[in-house]
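sanity check this:
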Amino acid sequence: MTNFYDLISDVLQERNKSIKDLENDGVLTKNTFYNFKDTAPSLSNIIAIANYLSVSIDYIIGNTSENKFKRYSPTQPNLYSKISALLNSSGISQSKLCKAVGISRTNFSRWNHGATPKLSTLIEICKYLSCNLDDILEKK
């Protein structure tokens, strides 16, 4: 599993920021950051961190060495349609994607109605579709 704690810590250091800065500036609640050693941050947390540090999520997780930051929308209402469009253009069915990344079609369908996927699931989807998170996440 990806160690998000280390990845985000590296970017914090690059930006001369600390975990305390994230907490004091209201980006994360106290001690939330330490959970990233064992679990992936929620999509809303990684978006808040990326916006705060002015870095792309793909840069944070090491998908690119080039930071092409554009502020992310705090909510992602078009995520389902963006992933569906990528599936259509690739000729891949929703069933095939769901099986490949280990999610149910029911969960995938919930994204069309406002549910938010896990960051780790989105990373797996992007790997499977050979795209970046920035290709599917909405910007302001």
About this structure: The radius of gyration is 15 Å. The chain has two domains: 4-60, 79-136. DSSP finds nine helices and no strands in the chain.
